[in-house]
Amino acid sequence: MADGHRYMQQSFSTPLPAQFASNTNIATGLLLNSLLNHFIADPSAAQQAAAQANPDHANQNNRGMYGQNHPQGHNPRLNGAAPGRQPNMPMFYNHVPQQGHPHQGHNAHHQVLQAGHSGHGARNDLMSHSTFSSGIMANASPYTTNNLQNGHSVAARGGPAEQPANEHWQKQMRLKEESDRAHSAMTEQHQPHYYARLKAPENKGIGGALTAGGTNASGDTEEEVRRRPYQVEKRNRRQDWHNLDMSGQGLRALSSALFSYDFLVELYIASNRLTFLPAEIGKLRHLKILEASNNLLSELPPEIGMCTSLEKLLLFDNQIRDLPYELGSLYKLDILGIEGNPINPGLREEIVERGTKSLINTLLEQAPVPLPPSPRKPIVVQEDVSPSLERIKVMTWNILCDKFATTNMYGYTPTGALSWDYRKERILQEIRDRDVDMLCLQEIATDVFRDFFSPELAQNDYKGVHWPRPKAKTMNEKDAAAVDGCAIFYKGSKWILLDKQLIDYANIAINRPDMKNQHDIFNRVMPKDNIGIICFFESRRTGARVIVANTHLAWEPTLADVKLVQMAILMENITKYAEKYVRWQPLKDKRGIQIPQSVSVESDIPKPEMPEPGPSQEYRSNTDIPLLVCGDYNSTQESSVYELLSMGRVTPEQSDFGPHQYGNFTRDGVAHPFSMRSAYVHLNGTPDELSFTNYVPGFQEVIDYIWYSTNTLEVVELLGPPDQNHLKRVPGFPNYHFPADHIQIMAEFVIKQRKGEKVKGVIHGGGSGQQDGGQDFGSGSK
C-alpha cells in the first residue's frame, strides 16, 4: 500500500540569538535589525507588487511598505517606533515542544524579498472558470453557482448579516470576534505580535525535547502514519520553534525567505496591508493554522491547496469574492473564516448552512480535471550498445490496493479518481504503454490478479505469477480473494518460467534454528505477513537465464529492524536458490513448450512471432546468473535495507537492529555474495534525478527500487521523473493522472557478454519448483 512517513524534523540551523534563547517572555520581539530584512520587502519592490495586485492602492506607492508616510533614510521611524529604537520584529515562539520537520534552504534568509507574485496572474473566477492555470480537459464542467444553492445577498465588508444559529457558524463568529479584538489591539493600541503575546504564558522556554514516542509536529493520526514509512533513527534533529507571528506590522508583501521555514505549524500575518499571498505559500505543507485576517486580500493563490495540514484558515475582513478549486484539497480544514468578505452568495450559503467541510468537499468534487502532465521521458544511460546483446526491460509498481484507497486516507483525492473502476483502467493502460518484459506489482489482490489483470494482460502476451499475504490461508474463500500480495508478469513469447518460490518471511524466521526461541522473532517479525517472490526464467531466443525477485516489506516506522530481517531472509534465499539454479538442467525442446494464448480467436491483434530458440546457457556460480530484485522496500537511502543491498553486508552493530536479538543476524551480521546497485543511481546528481517514488502530503521520498547485479547486467535506459511543473499544485497522489500513491519505475538492461561463455548440450531436464498457493495463469511453465 502507500507508504511514506513524515521524517522526524531536522533542527533549524538558524536558532534564536543566545541572549533570547532562554527567555520565553517573547523577547524575540526585540531581535536584531538584520533579521527584519529577511521578512520585510524592499519598499520599491513592494510598491510595484502592491500596485500590480491592487491598482486601487497605486497612489500609496510613495509611502513605503510599513504604512502611510513612512520616512526614508538611515534612521527612519519604523512601525511607529521612535528614531533610534528597535522596530517591531517578527516573533518566534514555541507553542508546544514538538518534534521537528526537515528543513532545507537554510541560506534562504539572504534572498531578496518577494516583490512580484509568481503565478499570481492566473487569477480564477470560481463561479465561471477553472483555477487550474494549466487548463482543463475538454470534457470538464466548470464550477458555477448552479452547483450551490443561492444564498444570502453579499453583505457589506464587515457589515451585519442575519445568520442561522448553527454550531459551525457560531464557532466562526466567535473566531471573528477574537480576530476583531486582536485587530483592535494591534491598530488602536499599537501592540503588534498580538498572538505571540497571547500565547506567552503557555510557553516555559525555547528549546524543548522531542515528545515521547517521536510524535511529529503535525499530529498525524495512526491511520496517516500507516501510509508513511521512515527510519526512526534517521533525520532526527531537534526543531525548537514552529510558530511565527508577523501580525500588525503594516506589511505589504512577504519575503520569499519566509517560505523556506517549511517546518512552520502556525503563521500569523493578520492586520497588515497584504494584497496577495505569494504562490510560495504552498511550500508550508506542515502549516495547521494560517491567520491572515484584516488584510487587503482579494483572492487566494491556487497553491494554497498544497497546505493539506491546514485546520484553521482565517481570512476575516478581506476583499475575497471567490475561492480556488484547489482549496478542496484541504481535507483537514475545520474552519474557513470568511465573514467580512464580499464572498460569492453561493459559497457563503454553503459554508453558513453546511459548514467548512461541506464547502471543501464540494470544491474537491466539482473541480475540473486538469490537463495531464508532460509524459515522463526515457533517459538514455548507455549508448552504442551491441544489438546482439539480450535486452530486458523491467518495471515495478505498488498499484495501491483498492481496500486501502479510502477517502479518510486520501481526502485530497476526488472520489472519481479514487475509485477502483477508474484506477484499474489507468493502471492497465500504463502497463500496456510501457510494454516491459518483466512487471513486478505490489498490493495486487488475488481476485484483481485472477479476474482482471491476468485475462487483460494475456492479450498483450503476458503470463503471471501471484501470491497473496499468508493471512489469506486463515480466511474463507471470499475474504481471502481480497487479500493483497505480490505478482510478477512476464512476456510469454520471450521468456520461459523455470521455477517460482514464495518467501514467507515470518514463517521462515520462526523456523530458523538460531531464531525460533527468541522473543523478538515472535513479538516483532512473526506478526508481519509480508512476502517475497523469486522466479527463475530462461530466454527463448538466447538461452540466457535470469532471476527476478519481487517484495513488499513492512511499512511501520518503528520496525526498521524487521525490514532489515525481511530483506536479509530474501537475500539469503536468493543465494540458496541461485546455487540450485546453477545446476538446473537445460531445456530439451523450447518449441515444445506452449506459448500462452495471447489474443482471442476473433481478435485482429497478431500473435507475437516466435524467435528461433537458443540452447540453455551454462553458469559456473550463483553470482553468474543475472539477478533483478524489485519492490516496495518502505526504506530510504539512509536505511539499513539500502546498506545491505548496496554494500553487501550489515554489521551486528547496525543501529536499526537496536536492542533486539535475531540469531545469527545480530551475532555475526548479514551478508550476501552479489554485487548489487540500484538502477536509478545513474541519475543521482543530474537534473533528472528521481526525488520520490511515493508522493503523499508530508512525504515524498524514494522507497521503491530496481536492484541489479552489476557483473551480469548493464543499465541502458531509465524512465525519467514526473513533470515537476505539474506537481506544483498537486499535494499528493493518487489523482486523475497518477492512479496510485506510488509511481512506477522502469529500467532497460542488457545482459553482459561473458568471457569463455559455454552452452550446455540439449538434454532432457528442468521443471518447476513452485509451491502450493502460487498462481500461474497460462500454460507451459510447469
From TrEMBL:
<comment type="similarity">
    <text>Belongs to the CCR4/nocturin family.</text>
</comment>
<keyword id="KW-0677">Repeat</keyword>
<feature type="region of interest" description="Disordered">
    <location>
        <begin position="47"/>
        <end position="88"/>
    </location>
</feature>
<dbReference type="GO" id="GO:0005737">
    <property type="term" value="C:cytoplasm"/>
</dbReference>
<keyword id="KW-0460">Magnesium</keyword>
<feature type="region of interest" description="Disordered">
    <location>
        <begin position="761"/>
        <end position="782"/>
    </location>
</feature>
<keyword id="KW-0694">RNA-binding</keyword>
<feature type="domain" description="Endonuclease/exonuclease/phosphatase">
    <location>
        <begin position="621"/>
        <end position="724"/>
    </location>
</feature>
<feature type="region of interest" description="Disordered">
    <location>
        <begin position="156"/>
        <end position="193"/>
    </location>
</feature>
<dbReference type="InterPro" id="IPR003591">
    <property type="entry name" value="Leu-rich_rpt_typical-subtyp"/>
</dbReference>
<dbReference type="InterPro" id="IPR050410">
    <property type="entry name" value="CCR4/nocturin_mRNA_transcr"/>
</dbReference>
<feature type="compositionally biased region" description="Low complexity">
    <location>
        <begin position="47"/>
        <end position="62"/>
    </location>
</feature>
<dbReference type="GO" id="GO:0005634">
    <property type="term" value="C:nucleus"/>
</dbReference>
<keyword id="KW-0805">Transcription regulation</keyword>
<keyword id="KW-0539">Nucleus</keyword>
<feature type="compositionally biased region" description="Basic and acidic residues">
    <location>
        <begin position="168"/>
        <end position="183"/>
    </location>
</feature>
<keyword id="KW-0269">Exonuclease</keyword>
<dbReference type="InterPro" id="IPR032675">
    <property type="entry name" value="LRR_dom_sf"/>
</dbReference>
<protein>
    <recommendedName>
        <fullName>CCR4-Not complex 3'-5'-exoribonuclease subunit Ccr4</fullName>
        <ecNumber>3.1.13.4</ecNumber>
    </recommendedName>
</protein>
<keyword id="KW-0963">Cytoplasm</keyword>
<keyword id="KW-0433">Leucine-rich repeat</keyword>
<comment type="function">
    <text>Acts as a catalytic component of the CCR4-NOT core complex, which in the nucleus seems to be a general transcription factor, and in the cytoplasm the major mRNA deadenylase involved in mRNA turnover. Ccr4 has 3'-5' RNase activity with a strong preference for polyadenylated substrates and also low exonuclease activity towards single-stranded DNA.</text>
</comment>
<feature type="region of interest" description="Disordered">
    <location>
        <begin position="205"/>
        <end position="234"/>
    </location>
</feature>
<dbReference type="Pfam" id="PF03372">
    <property type="entry name" value="Exo_endo_phos"/>
</dbReference>
<keyword id="KW-0479">Metal-binding</keyword>
<dbReference type="InterPro" id="IPR001611">
    <property type="entry name" value="Leu-rich_rpt"/>
</dbReference>
<keyword id="KW-0540">Nuclease</keyword>
<dbReference type="InterPro" id="IPR036691">
    <property type="entry name" value="Endo/exonu/phosph_ase_sf"/>
</dbReference>
<feature type="compositionally biased region" description="Gly residues">
    <location>
        <begin position="763"/>
        <end position="782"/>
    </location>
</feature>
<keyword id="KW-0378">Hydrolase</keyword>
<feature type="compositionally biased region" description="Basic and acidic residues">
    <location>
        <begin position="224"/>
        <end position="234"/>
    </location>
</feature>
<keyword id="KW-0804">Transcription</keyword>
<dbReference type="GO" id="GO:0046872">
    <property type="term" value="F:metal ion binding"/>
</dbReference>
<dbReference type="GO" id="GO:0004535">
    <property type="term" value="F:poly(A)-specific ribonuclease activity"/>
</dbReference>
<dbReference type="GO" id="GO:0003723">
    <property type="term" value="F:RNA binding"/>
</dbReference>
<feature type="domain" description="Endonuclease/exonuclease/phosphatase">
    <location>
        <begin position="395"/>
        <end position="496"/>
    </location>
</feature>
<dbReference type="InterPro" id="IPR005135">
    <property type="entry name" value="Endo/exonuclease/phosphatase"/>
</dbReference>
